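Dear colleague,

Following up on Tuesday's group meeting, I ran the structure prediction for the two-component complex that the binding team flagged. I've pasted the input sequences exactly as they went in, so you can double-check that nothing got truncated or mislabelled along the way. The structure tokens for the whole assembly follow below. Feel free to forward this to whoever is handling the docking comparison.

Inputs:
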Amino acid sequence: MSAVTSDSPSFGRRLAGFGRTLISPRGAVFLLLIVLLVAITVLNPSFAEPGQFIRFVQRVAPVAIVAIGQYFVIVGGEFDLSMGSVVTAQVVIAGNLIGQDESKSIPVLLFMLAFGAFIGLVNGLIVTLLKVPSFIVTLGMMLALLGATLYWTGGAATGNPADGFRQIGRGGIRDIPVIEILPWSVVILVVILLVAIWFARRPFGRTIIALGDNPTAASYSGARSWWVKTSTFIISSLSATVAGVLLVGYAGVHPSVGRGYEFTAITAVVLGGVVLGGGRGWVVAAAAGAFALEALFTLLNFAGVPSTYRDAVQGFIIILAVAYAATTFRARRRGSALETSAGAQAEPKEPDAAAASARPAPIPSTQRADNETKGGS
Amino acid sequence: MRRRFTVASAMVGALALMTMAGCTTDPNVGSPTDASAPAAEEEEVEWFDQELFDKQDAERGVTPEGPEGQPWLQHINAEMVDTSQYASAGAKKACFANASISNPWRQTGWITMNQQLQVLQEAGAISEMETRDAQDSDDTQIADIDYFINEGNCDVFIISPNSTAAMTPAVERACDTGKPVVVFDRGVQTDCPVTFIHPIGGFAWGIDTAEFLIDNLDEGSKVVALRILPGVDVLEQRWAAAEKLFDEAGIEAVDYFTGADPTEIKKIISDELAKGDVHGVWMDAGDGAVAAIEAFEDAGVDYPVMTGEDEMSFLRKWEETGLTGLAPVYSNFQWRTPLLAAQMIFAGQEIPKEWVLPQSPITEDERAEFLAANEGMPDGHYAKFGGEDLPGYPQVWQDRVIP
């Protein structure tokens, strides 16, 4: 966004630039989000009240955090399908290990983080060292974790953990003017988003994107690709762990909590204009994708769409939105650049990525891409 | 490279579809073995059945016959059948085709059933019970039943059907072996089993709960109905009855499918509260009731009038909050009856053809009694589980180790 303002000094041009960004793929998700939020507010004006709105943000926080984690994996050229199961497993671990004993909260929380990191590490190492496609590895991990959870619980709810632990997802800082309560979830989401933006701009974060764009080029440029990729899986599992902690507070323990989160996250990321297969995308847009998805759900609630075909309506709108993003992408690739200024490091790389796939000979393309990657970071 | 991405995207898409399809528990889905039912079912999606509604409405008022204090052996308006053709001495092998143990209600019943089995094994009536769990899949259960028929070496088939239409042919095949068949919980569309055991039913649940909400709310009040999933007859009938009564009484009711996911429940209630006042909450099963109540707490509004279930989590939260509520019961003690019926069949005793077990809700006045009787039980336990006289009580249910 900052790039847009820098090359359009006058207010009129700035506005036009902003408009262009909104209809461009990178901005489409924000446009969708604005449309959805306006539609919700029209249907139910009280939604725009600060107190109500912050509750909405609280509720989206776990999904958005999962989407942020998934962003790093997808932009690095892989998938993490195990996120939903990690959420479920963490929710059940919290419920069973903490129980009503509040003093266990901290040790169990640490254990959960370690467990999350371990799952990510296993996923990452199998993908990078054993060269198994991430789709299969994480699918296997998803089933394995789900199976273990079902075995442990028998598929039914156990008791909720102590209320103190649940405050992380349920409570917040009270007695704040205007918004009444600032939920901890919102604080955590903001912190994670800021860290993610910072991290994505660091050399390490850029290496992830380069790796997703052209792994050969990235490895020639000296990136330790196995470690970079593995770390994206650790990030995603950790974000799923945080989401699990928030969800256990928000809603409680049930083996169905977290079910389908991996697909919600992938949809959110794609909706945010991140390209499946890696190399392009913006982490904020991925988070915005999560917000758009949840806003859609809320809109359907407010519009009173009958429960029987709610899913169909939801799916249809998602297809339309993703199709829109895909079409604008293609238009851009053909040369009719809607977005002239976005992502200086990502833009010139595109023809090389296409060229790399078209030509099997690695040497000419890698040399060029190598230079671009260095220039970007 | 490009192609790899396309393939990967297609795989994600396909998997998403599979997951979504797997989530539906509509009996019409995934029952390829059933050739005759789909045509009839496609045009008839109406779950309301006036005749059945009236029958169950009447049964609610009937005093059940049978031994005092043993509701699992009581029956309502029974037509007895002779079973002397099956009479035979010695311990028998029971084969149990179970739909699933994927919700706390089924888990509680399953534990109780295993304790009942112990008693019958010690009494020398049943030698062993071989169980196959279909994990909510029609296809798996059909295969399970066929396995029992062909290789199970069974003396009696006990079947808790996953869905009604799809399981009918398999149950008929089991009947064709000439061995006794006992069906319980959800029904099948054939009367070939020796007995079909079930509590009064979904319409009775719907009538009990809707009448309670109507009595405690004014006309024009708003009720949010939280439903687990579509397409399961016992659940659809609960809502069909309640929806009709709400409609007649001028109660504004909106229904949602939640999959018993507390996150969904909380979102739905929060949205409804953002829209306007919610005066009542109706549930077709108590799983997730606590999340619904918490949504009211978090929004800082008055508790609704609410119907949950006799699950301990709801009973405890109900007492703690003091809200106006009712705990309808889908009698969990029915899990004891099938094995006892098998024992009676081999003894040649008369049993009811359709064994309707009593089913009465827990009211606020009775709540304390049930809370005290089930103290120390986990949240997923059901108050009317009916296993107090079985070996292992209360430890087995408190530990809740799934057999």
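Chain A touches chain B through 48 residues (CB under 8 Å).

Cheers,
M.
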